[in-house]
């Protein structure tokens, strides 16, 4: 495919779309939209790639396409606070050089990653369902349920087109923490018309509807009641609904709950500060919990993806400074395996079983719910929005293809984008050029 022409990037109204990460892969989400020479970005995340040593290599999208073609972003819009959507900001902010538009909770997560002594680009806190003008673009954040509070789809109106960027989402009538999906606004958007939907493909191959967080709370409660020794639950630190559930379950089952892992402690603090977590009775310190009888202990820890340096990995290897597991203890994996982490996670499972620890996962009990939409969720959203065309992103090619096939059965056209492809959205989406793209490994501590 040819390189883009100057007039396509800097003069024509388009609008145009290009992914510099997140299309045909998991992680490193960075999507650009352009019109009349103005460009904005949506999300800026990291990708995690497992290595032979069991560690995860952290990579961020290359911005070489921007410098090569003299593209300057005027704004970066953020859908939600997961690392694959905000984690690259501390590494790329100097090159981006533009203001960020973000919800209050996600803004706090970003500020927590930025060195306070540097002159960071401004973070503008948005209000959902209130459109703001950004030059040629008008943007509106639409609340959706996901596995972290303040998740949004973004409606863009530009060059006479209405584009809906879904972000990560699911349908959940009982999310426990955070807002419900703004169904009424989505229906209204659909009545007004959606030209192109740029959508989450993670669970597109899966039939059925999403499991609610309320159902997960019931499943965790039943599983934990059956355990006799200490209980360790591994989950994603950002899932505040899961922390909410586990604090309540601990109280109801005669246990006390504590947190292991810096990211969990940090996220718990942010959740409390924004009113998403209450203290009934909450979590006690690790030092206090460790002195209680085993059958009264419920630990929540990081490391559900097999990271050897995280709390669960250190527990499995017997090297955690605050806790040692014993035969008869139970570990619950309240999480979804991210593709690429199979080998390190299997290594941890074998280490745990070698210690006589019981393992319970989502194949054995309903103790996890994905934050991404399977086919019945997709069907419902597309019935509300009635998009003419789809660009499936946020997934490997297999997931994108399943998403596109499902959409075509609903009468929706479109194409499957790859990273670097410049796509003209002025009529039926079509590929017109190719920009350079790559991932760059970074030092997560640097």
Please give a handful of descriptors for the protein shown.
single chain; 446 residues; alpha/beta; eight-stranded mixed beta sheet; seven-stranded mixed beta sheet; 14 helices
Write the layout of secondary structure elements.
Layout: H1 6-10, E1 16-21, E2 30-35, E3 38-42, E4 47-50, E5 56-61, H2 64-68, E6 73-77, H3 83-86, H4 89-96, E7 100-102, H5 104-111, E8 123-125, E9 132-134, E10 137-144, E11 151-158, E12 161-165, H6 183-192, E13 194-200, H7 213-225, E14 231-234, H8 240-252, E15 256-260, H9 262-273, H10 286-290, E16 297-301, H11 311-317, E17 330-333, H12 342-354, E18 358-360, H13 375-385, E19 387-393, H14 397-409, E20 413-414, E21 421-424, E22 430-434, E23 439-442
Parallel strand pairs: 3-6, 6-7, 7-8, 12-13, 13-19, 14-16, 14-17, 15-16, 17-18, 19-20
Antiparallel strand pairs: 1-2, 1-21, 2-3, 4-5, 5-23, 9-10, 10-11, 11-12, 21-22
Detailed description of the structure:
- The protein is of the alpha/beta class and 446 residues long.
- The protein is built from 14 helices and 23 strands.
- It is 28% helix and 25% strand.
- The protein is globular and about 70 Å long.
Mean pLDDT across every amino acid position: 94
Number of discrete helical segments: 14
Instruction: Give the quaternary arrangement of the chains.
Output: single chain
The helical percent reads 25-40%
Strand content: 25-35%
Number of strands: 23
Principal-axis shape: globular
């Amino acid at each position: 495919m040819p390189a883009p022409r100057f007039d396509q990037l800097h003069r024509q109204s388009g609008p145009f779309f290009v992914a510099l990460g997140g299309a045909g892969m998991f992680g490193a989400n960075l999507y650009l939209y352009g019109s009349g020479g103005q460009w904005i970005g949506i999300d800026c995340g990291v990708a995690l790639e497992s290595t032979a040593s069991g560690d995860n290599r952290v990579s961020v999208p290359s911005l070489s396409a921007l410098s090569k073609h003299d593209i300057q972003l005027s704004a970066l819009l953020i859908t939600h606070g997961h690392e694959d959507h905000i984690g690259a900001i501390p590494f790329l902010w100097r090159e981006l050089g533009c203001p960020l538009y973000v919800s209050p909770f996600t803004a706090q997560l970003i500020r927590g990653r930025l060195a306070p002594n540097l002159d960071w680009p401004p973070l503008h806190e948005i209000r959902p369902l209130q459109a703001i003008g950004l030059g040629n673009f008008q943007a509106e954040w639409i609340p959706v349920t996901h596995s972290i509070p303040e998740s949004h789809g973004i409606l863009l109106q530009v060059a006479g087109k209405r584009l809906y960027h879904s972000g990560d989402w699911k349908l959940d009538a009982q999310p426990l923490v955070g807002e419900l999906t703004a169904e009424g606004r989505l229906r209204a958007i659909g009545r007004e018309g959606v030209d192109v939907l740029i959508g989450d493909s993670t669970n597109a191959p899966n039939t059925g509807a999403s499991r609610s967080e309320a159902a997960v709370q019931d499943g965790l409660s039943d599983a934990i009641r059956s355990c006799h020794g200490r209980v360790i639950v591994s989950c994603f630190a950002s899932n505040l609904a899961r922390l909410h559930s586990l604090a309540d379950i601990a109280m109801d089952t005669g246990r006390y709950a504590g947190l292991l892992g810096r990211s969990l402690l940090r996220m718990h603090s942010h959740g409390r500060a924004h009113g998403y977590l209450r203290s009934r009775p909450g979590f006690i310190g690790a030092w206090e919990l460790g002195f209680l009888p085993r059958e009264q202990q419920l630990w929540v820890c990081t490391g559900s993806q097999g990271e050897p340096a995280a709390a669960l990995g250190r527990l499995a290897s017997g090297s955690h400074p605050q806790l040692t597991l014993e035969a008869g203890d139970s570990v619950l994996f309240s999480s979804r395996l991210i593709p690429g982490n199979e080998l390190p996670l299997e290594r941890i499972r074998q280490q745990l079983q070698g210690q006589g620890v019981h393992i319970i996962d989502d194949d054995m009990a309903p103790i996890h719910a994905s934050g991404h939409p399977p086919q019945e969720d997709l069907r419902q959203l597309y019935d509300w929005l009635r998009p003419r065309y789809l660009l499936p992103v946020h997934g490997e090619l297999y997931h994108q293809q399943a998403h596109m096939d499902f959409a075509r059965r609903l009468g929706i056209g479109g194409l499957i984008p790859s990273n670097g492809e410049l796509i003209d959205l002025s009529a039926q989406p079509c590929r017109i050029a190719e920009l350079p793209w790559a991932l760059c490994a970074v030092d997560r501590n640097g």
